[in-house]
Design brief:
heterodimer; A: DNA polymerase, domain 1; 5-stranded mixed sheet; B: alpha+beta; Aldehyde Oxidoreductase, domain 3; Aldehyde Oxidoreductase, domain 4; binds FE2/S2 (inorganic) cluster
Chain lengths: ~150, ~775
């Protein structure tokens, strides 16, 4: 089947099998930042934006992308790098495997929440698992990024 | 002098890995690689009577289907250990006997996943089903023998008795434990159960293989152990190791899981059979249920002390469950005693003894902490219980009994502890958690808050066995290339080694290129496990840098027509002060590779340590327990860490925080469970809960540095030791809150609740509190 959508600001026609998941389709198109860490929509690694909203691409059948704007970290590379530098300054990316999904969620949060409290931040990010860092360093970086006092 | 050690330098690979660049195994798959899938046993214990692959092979798009008839009949171990491995050679790539639900039955390779899965359904297998051994406490007397095969082989006498399902038998005793226990004024005895834990690294197991331009087998793998994988593949596939190259790219977490070669042989055998590139990527379910977990153990501790609180005798009797195969079985078990008994050195006798048994469950393997985690939970819980019984402050009983820098202990047999700041760690941790105000408990609005603590040690590398080589090359432009076989798995060890080299060569990390973990290129290194890289590979790095520096100075002296002793090297230029002659590093580099009669300068070192100096942690937990439900919330965790010199404070801190959170998972949530037929019930993140952001409270890590005289710039290890304290410290805090000793991990609300129903609070009040007041 053919799906017309916009991926990282480029009009695209996706060729995909019915039942295919968006995460797999994006990866097959060479967007290798899109990863899966689970089969149960639990980990957040596959997070991309659909019409600006962070979404688990492993849980979205590709036909739902019809007419939508899809954004992966490749499409917001400068913004992502700006936050990644803060993360790196904390040493808070360890293996980095969770980072693209995590960063997509952080960038969306910055757009969506005004003056969030620490609890708001934790709540917003809670679907993004990380097995390496213990989350504290990520929080330090997020607070710096949002200009929230620690 | 420039100082690189101690600087919070961002990791060399930070930006690319954080922003999703294609630098991991699957990203490097060659085009048109076959997809490899594994047909798995639905039975916990069975023999394949017949297997028919005709229909599967006939399916269009299927490249090969392999069964036990198609693999070499040579047993091996997947444990990533230096040769000769202590783990038994009890595996085949595919075995006619299947020993757990999920054991491999057939390998299918096809042009795409859908076809491979379709082919899998077309394979017909007939099994003769046996009674499985599921309860590890019954394994020794079970009528079933998990490994009946006669060709199972051990490199050492590990005390195997396979007719009784005993993989190995271990005993270490110094002094006469029974006699000393009789002499003690006070004794505590308790049996602790530590559960199987899953690594749950975010990048599941995966490997890609192909044949290169010379027809050699290349395997790109998300592994901690490229050289061990090369050797395993050589044996399992019956190929000379020289025909195999293993490359480790960036890895999405390992935690010991990738110290066992889970998937490489499956991809490799497909490539050998078809000549085509192949890739195998485990999904989360396979990662949970067909790889390895932490060894579940039963540990019975008897602790004897005198009235003043001096611990005089420690006895730990253990039983460990290795599951279907014996990867890391003898060594994880030995570590239980090795990394606990030295802690308390006022003892007159200590003993650790017991067995590891086979069962028909997923194999256990290496997982961060590697037995020390299990031993720490048991011994520290017993020490906390002893303190309660003696009505002593648990921090005081530690300070009274702990081994100090410069001291020895029974199991060290005269060797002295080179460095320890554990006493300072305890003092600092107490202060930060507010111990004096909060211990043991406070009741506020029906909720109870309480604190608890534990201490631990680990090692730094495997003494006398694991040996790392490092090569540092002066390049033609005056920068350096550091070659290592160690495997940064996200820990930042490549950066740590670059910092050490930069320090020794008086340069910056930007001038040190790190090339790591390619068996064709790297000097030999066992890989990153056993808390070895900073300490062992780090020492090799420091020595290789010193070797290179000496060679550079000699060449500079020759070119400047002076003597090496007169040359001063500041990282940028070589200068003979007396004659004011000098030469830049760039010039020296250029001249070292230009013209005739030259020799490019390379520093080399091979280092293995005769000792494994322990890092230490004092961990403090503050919990809130709901007495109505037994629910435990972790409010705060303070860890004061002695890893010797801290090479990179940010990387160290995050590694410590991450380890503590895995320890919190072990303490409160994580538990690999099976049903009555041996089917794993916890094969997804729905059923197997790892801590998320909301579960961990506030974690504070502080470093109390010691200086390890045998370590690189005084450093010891850090990676594993940090996982050990949360379970006993949280269990202790729960006891202080509601009087329930959690002896079976994890501390779920049900266990706390039923403990309270059995008289936790009231029992505690009468026995331990009122009696003491
Ligand atoms: S892959 Fe885990 S949530 Fe999508
Ligand atoms: S950094 Fe490894 S999972 Fe988050």
């Amino acid at each position: 089947m053919q799906i017309e959508c916009v991926i990282n600001d480029q009009k695209t026609v996706l060729e995909a099998n019915a039942g295919e998941l968006l995460a797999d389709t994006l990866r097959a198109r060479g967007l290798l930042s899109v990863r899966k860490g689970c089969d149960t929509a639990c980990c957040g690694l596959c997070t991309v934006w659909i019409d600006g909203k962070p979404t688990l691409s492993c849980a979205v059948p590709v036909f739902r992308a019809q007419g939508k704007h899809i954004t992966t970290i490749e499409g917001v590379s400068e913004e992502a790098a700006a936050f990644a530098r803060l993360l790196a300054a904390e040493g808070a990316e360890q293996c980095g495997f969770c980072s693209p999904g995590f960063i997509m969620t952080v960038l969306a949060m910055k757009r969506e929440l005004k003056n969030p409290t620490e609890a708001d931040i934790v709540h917003y990010l809670t679907g993004n698992l990380c097995r390496c860092t213990g989350y504290m360093g990520q929080m330090r970086a997020v607070k710096k990024y949002l200009g929230v006092a620690s | 002098m420039n100082k690189v050690i101690g600087q919070a330098i961002p990791k060399l690979d930070a930006l690319p890995i954080a922003t999703g660049k294609p630098v991991y195994t699957e990203d490097l798959t060659p085009p048109n690689a076959l997809t490899v899938k594994i047909l798995r046993s639905p039975h916990a214990f069975a023999r394949i009577v017949a297997i028919d692959t005709t229909k599967a092979k006939a399916l269009s798009g299927v490249a090969c289907v392999l069964t036990y008839q198609d693999v070499p009949n040579i047993r091996f171990t997947l444990a990533g250990q230096s040769y000769p491995e202590p783990s038994p050679y009890d595996r085949l790539i595919l075995d006619p006997i299947v020993r757990y639900v999920g054991d491999a039955v057939a390998i299918i390779a096809a042009t795409d996943e859908t076809t491979a899965l379709k082919a899998m359904e077309l394979i017909e297998v007939h099994y003769e089903v046996y009674e499985p051994v599921l309860d590890f406490e019954q394994a020794m007397n079970h009528s079933s023998v998990v490994h009946p095969e006669p060709d199972l082989f051990c490199n050492y006498d590990i005390g195997m008795n396979k007719e009784r399902n005993i993989v190995c038998t271990h005993k270490i005793e110094v002094g006469d434990v029974e006699a000393e226990l009789k002499n003690c004024d006070v004794m505590v005895e308790n049996t602790y159960y530590t559960q199987a834990q899953s690594h749950a690294m975010m990048e599941t197991y995966r490997a890609v293989s192909y044949l290169d331009h010379a027809g050699r087998l290349v395997v790109i793998s998300s592994t901690q152990i490229p050289f061990h994988v090369r050797r395993q593949l050589a044996r399992a596939l019956n190929l000379p190791a020289s025909r195999i190259r293993v490359i480790k790219p960036r890895i999405g977490g390992g935690f010991g899981g990738k110290q066992t070669g889970a998937v490489e042989a499956f991809a490799a055998i497909v490539t050998l059979n078809t000549g085509k590139p192949a890739k195998i990527v485990y999904d989360r379910q396979e990662t949970f249920s067909t790889t390895t977990s932490r060894h579940a153990m039963r540990l019975t501790v008897r602790l004897g002390a005198d009235r003043e609180g001096y611990i005089r005798a420690i006895d730990i009797a253990g039983l460990s469950d290795t599951g279907a195969y014996g990867e890391h079985a003898p060594t994880t078990f030995a570590v239980v005693g090795d990394k606990t008994l030295p802690l308390y050195n006022k003892t007159r006798a200590v003993r650790f003894h017991g067995h590891v048994v086979y069962t028909n469950k997923m194999p256990a393997g290496a997982l961060r902490g590697y037995g020390a985690t299990q031993g720490t939970f048991a011994l520290e819980s017993a020490v906390n219980q002893l303190a309660a019984k003696l009505n002593m402050d648990p921090t005081e009983i530690r300070l009274k009994n702990l081994i100090r820098e410069g001291e020895t202990c029974l199991t060290y047999r005269g060797k002295k502890l080179g460095s320890s700041a554990l006493d300072r760690c305890i003092a600092r941790g107490k202060e930060l958690i507010g111990w004096n105000e909060k211990y043991p408990r406070q009741e506020i609005n029906g909720k109870i808050k309480a604190v608890g603590m534990a201490v631990t040690m680990q090692g730094s590398g495997i003494a006398g066995i694991d040996t790392a080589s490092v090569e540092i090359r002066l390049q033609d432009d005056g920068c350096y290339t550091l070659l290592t076989g160690s495997t940064d798995m996200g820990t930042g060890s490549d950066t740590i080694l670059a910092q050490m080299a930069a320090e020794a060569l008086a340069t910056t990390v930007e001038n040190v290129i790190v090339n790591a973990a390619d068996t064709d290129v790297s000097p030999y290194d066992p890989g990153s496990y056993a808390s070895s890289t900073t300490y062992v590979t780090g020492m090799a790095t420091v020595q290789a840098a010193a070797d290179l520096k000496q060679k550079m100075i000699c060449l500079a002296a020759e070119l400047l027509a002076t003597t090496p002793g007169k040359i001063d090297f500041d990282g940028k230029r070589f200068r003979d002060e007396a004659s004011a002659k000098e030469m830049t590093l760039a010039k020296l580099a250029e001249l070292s590779v230009l013209g005739t009669g030259k020799l490019q300068l390379v520093g080399n070192a091979t280092y293995g340590s005769p000792i494994s100096p322990p890092p230490f942690v004092a961990g403090f937990a503050e919990v809130e327990v709901d007495p109505e439900t037994g629910k435990v919330d972790l409010l705060r965790y303070v860890a004061a860490v002695d890893c010797g010199t801290v090479i990179n404070p940010n990387l160290a801190r995050v590694q410590a925080e991450g380890g503590i959170v895995q320890g919190i998972g072990l303490a409160l949530f994580e538990d690999v469970r099976y049903d009555a037929k041996g089917v794993m019930q916890t094969n997804s993140f729905m059923q197997y809960k790892i801590p998320c952001r909301k579960d961990v409270g506030e974690i504070q890590v502080v470093f109390e540095e010691s200086y390890e005289p045998t370590g690189p710039y005084g450093a010891k290890s850090l990676g594993e030791v940090v996982i050990n304290t949360p379970a006993p410290a949280i269990a202790h805090a729960i006891y202080n809150a509601v009087g329930v000793w959690i002896t079976r991990l994890p501390a779920t609300p049900e266990k706390v609740f039923f403990g309270m129903r059995q008289g936790g609070i009231s029992k505690m009040r009468t026995e331990d509190y009122d009696a003491g007041r």
